[in-house]
Amino acid sequence: MKILVxxxxxxxxxxxxxxxxxxxxxxxxxGVSFAFEEDHAGxxxxxxxxxxxxxxxxxxxxxxxxxxxxAVGGPKWDHHTGAMRPESGLLKIxxxxxxxxxxxxxxxxxxxxxxxxxxxxxxxxxxxxxxxELTGGIYFGEPRGRSGEPGAEDxxxxxxxxxxxxxxxxxxxxxxxxxxxxRVCSVDKANVLVVSQLWRDVVTKLHKEExxxxxxxxxxxxxxxxxxxxxxxxxDVILTGNLFGDILSxxxxxxxxxxxxxxxxxxxGNVGLFEPVHGSAPDIAxxxxxxxxxxxxxxxxxxxxxxxxxxxxxxRAGVDAALNEGLRxxxxxxxxxxxxxxxxxxxxxxxxxxxxxxx
Length: 359
Ligand code: IPM
Ligand code: MN
Hints:
Elements: E1 2-8, H1 12-30, E2 35-38, H2 43-49, H3 55-62, E3 66-71, H4 86-97, E4 101-107, H5 120-123, E5 127-133, E6 145-147, E7 154-156, H6 163-179, E8 183-188, H7 194-210, E9 215-220, H8 221-230, E10 237-240, H9 242-253, E11 265-267, E12 272-274, H10 293-305, H11 309-324, E13 327-328, E14 339-340, H12 343-357
Parallel strand pairs: 1-2, 1-3, 3-12, 5-10, 8-9, 8-10, 13-14
Antiparallel strand pairs: 4-5, 4-11, 6-7, 11-12
Helix pairs in contact: 1-10, 1-12, 6-7, 8-9, 10-11, 11-12
The protein binds 3-isopropylmalic acid (IPM) and manganese (II) ion.
């Protein structure tokens, strides 16, 4: 299987490096072989090619079986605007791969309950999957622009969704709900936005026609933000649009104590894109203190998608083992309570335990 690795910027290369090493040792034991190819994305691609996501990289991605992406962006490229921003490169590859469904699972393990910003009793039982629409909505809507004289400028984006765009991502959410707790909460702003009124109508109709065995509820996004911090355990699958999903998934991610834990898989096209939810964290890049868990769990999601469930489960078992043993990177370390380790040490322990659990 061909895997394209796009380490990107900041801590991206450090965590991607650990992901590749992990796949190499597990694949060797399992007798599967991965051919890794590496290229630039985001700021590093601006430096190398003058383009945050050249067509040649997109072509490699399309020719691969899966794409692992670290993170993009950083102060070095902050003066860039429009299509030259590192983030635009990320949006381009998502769009080009057609990965319209972004899956962001948030489960709070018992070992980390006391790392949560919420009280342990508030967090208990939290296990949700955010299904975020990824290739439409206000991120991509036209028209968009900025015009007028300085001092009297006008700027606008457009939030729009078509029926098929809503339907296909809703189908992903309902399908996941059947494999999980059987409940979907669709989050919108239908009390204000017409685009949300269509969203709600389409989700309701699809539910009635094809997924009436799944429980469907609707929630306004402002209430959902509150419910996520008041009683996160009420959610099973959250289905929402691109912008609301971006915001809610960061809030959900931190329930477990650190953004450094949350993986994601972007699917729906021929090739999946797997990236941690966290950013490039330029302030801590190169210091060996980044948490590799989100990247490793994203890699596990890729293995699931490529029907390598044993490797996926081994990685997850490795992560659980390292956390249960009290190993923590700087983001989660608590003096006197846990053992502080580097990115490499954390990943190394995860690999050992993963290898031991691999049958
Ligand atoms: C994410 C990120 C991206 C997004 C940025 C980097 C473009 O925040 O994956 O959540 O907004 O989608
Ligand atoms: Mn985000």
